[in-house]
Amino acid sequence: MWETTRTIFAQSLERALTALARVAPGLLALLVVFAASVIAAALVRAGLHRLCARIGLDAWAARWGLSSPEAGRASPSAVAANLGTATVLAFGLLLGLAIFDAAAKTALTTHAADYAPHVLAAALIFVAGLAAARALERQLLISAVNLGLQSARLVAGGARWIVLTMATGMALEHLGIGGRTLPILLAIVVGGIVLALALAFGLGARDAVARALERRTGAAEEGAKRGGGQDVQHM
Amino acid sequence: MDTGGSGATPPIAVVAIDLRSPASTDANVRAITGSLRGDRGPVDLRIRYVDWGAGAPRLLDGDGDPPPESSRGLPVSLAVGGIGGAASASRLLLEEGAACRAEAVAFIAGEHPGLPAGWARALLAPIFAGGFDFVSLAYDRHPLDGALNTGVVYPFVRAVYGAALRQPLGGEVALSMRFGARLLEDPDWRRDPASAGGDAWLVAKALTSGARVCEAHLGHWPRPPLERSDPSEVLAHVLGLVFTETEREPSRWQRVQASRPVERYGVPEAPAGPAPRPDVGKLVDALRLGLRELTPVWSQFVPPGALLALQRAAAAPAPEFRIEDRLWARLVFDFAVAHSTRLVERSQLLRSMTPIYLGWVASFANELQGLAPAAAEERVERLCRAFEAEKRYLVGRWRWPESFIP
How far is B157 from chain A (nearest CA, A)? Predict the structure, then answer.
């Protein structure tokens, strides 16, 4: 009895040690690759920080209204550095997992490797959409104020949300999330925003339109003859 | 006119009639050409036309007919405030002057419905008789007729460069070819072709290079039909030209302490016609809207104290609305510094200034109401002195822009 138990125990131990011996090099390789990816991520982070500082990314983004000068940890250079770091770490982890079980890639690593370019493209689309939305918002805000629209902020904000919604939709489509439901949903949202903007613009721009019509019909000149209300000759 | 030339060979002057404005009608251009030919005196006057029909300027010989009207005119934003620009007509004229061995060249607008007798002589006399290099032309206009010139361009140029040129960006100018030859050698034609040759560039070059500068008063400006120009477009274009020039060799203008009077030819008179009467309520509303919506943009480069002062001023009823000269001067300087540091994209920055500028127009219109022309000019003089007094602020901000960012 004791002999049988001892044999079974020895065989189990041997199997466990054999399995460990089989796994150990892969595990070691995984750790080495991941450690290397951590170092690479740190280098990429430092490199991106220096590159962004050299090209003045934060100042450029602030100039175009893409970010505020006091953005701090949410500044474009910080976001770029974080994205770069996360990408290198993710690729390092996937590479390590692939090496860990090279003979039979797990479904996770295979799927992740196929999916990674879509994630990267979606992230780029979203960031570009975010930047375009903010730049457009400030441009429209200034133009709408100069047109005398009382609902200037609403118009600018609406345009921003349209661009942002479209960018989000495109990014999600790249990720394969939502199927056919998403475009329909986004079309409804964008249509709603456009309708709201049209109403806001129509109501807010009544005076501007009236002035334009007055000019066309010569009523402004009549007003000027009566005294006051003249346009100013600027130069 | 004493031309200073030797009797046998009269001195040569090349005058280019600029056809950029849609008001350069065939009748106007023919009248100008006739007046110039009849008023040339002992000068060999050669007339050219600057035709903008093809987009880039062409210098056409004035012996034939002027180019057809259909090919003339530029959008208002390009037609105001400047000779040349990217495809500079002034370089063409200077080269023509050099080729003709002229002693003087001049740009005049094609909008005049004819020229009074003696006009051409008055234009060229400072060069031939006075030995001047740069003649800035000025007309009798009410301060609010050309409000951007009165409120920003004139006081700014005067404070920065120290020369009281009343209408420095009129688009009309006469130059000696002595100075013109120096301009042709200037590296800016290659380094900065977008600005070189514009009249802000010509003025800045004349005022910083030791050229002899004077002003010729040529009577009443025959007011063309009111241009339906978007103020933000005009503001962005004109101030873009002026502010860009201050970035060139700032050490020179920063040394200028006070303005000096420039020699004047001709006597300024009271402007003809009634003073413009803008709708002050509408202008103040534009400022209030700007304060409500654009403060986050302005607060990136305008100190909080100035914004607060503007908000307090805007709270007053429209007829009592006032912007102090000191505050206005500082605001203009804040925008000039922000333009130089590129803290905000330049076109957006200058367009965002529109509500503040319209507010100033309202304030100035309130102050000028009921004033006689002489008193109105005295008020403009006070404004200029405020700009000069605040120049220390501009120099400080220019040198250490970071330390002023709120």
Answer: 15
- In sequence order, the 6+-apart residues with CB closer than 8 A to the CB of B69 are B24, B25, B26
Q: What is the pTM of this model?
A: 0.80
Orientation angle between helical segments A2-55 and A76-100, nearest 10 degrees: 150
Q: Is the minimum CB–CB distance between B231 and chain A shorter than 8 Å?
A: yes
H/E run at residue A102: none
Length of chain A: 235
Residues in chain B, total = 406
DSSP β-bridge partners for residue B215: B136, B264
SS3 content of chain A, % helix, strand, coil (to 5): 85, 0, 15
The answer to whether the Cβ–Cβ distance between A233 and B351 falls below 8 Å is no
What does the block give as tokens for B297?
């943009």
Q: Distance between CA atoms of A188 and A196, rounded to whole angstroms?
A: 12
| B-interface mutation test, from A137, A138, A140, A233, most B Cβ less than 10 A away | A233
Local structure of residue B300 (DSSP, 8 states)? T
Nearest CA to B335 out of B403, B242, B205 is that of B242
**Alpha-carbon distances of B294 from A131, B307, B339, rounded to whole Å:** 19, 11, 17
pLDDT in tens, B61-100: 876 666 666 666 555 555 555 555 545 788 889 999 999 8
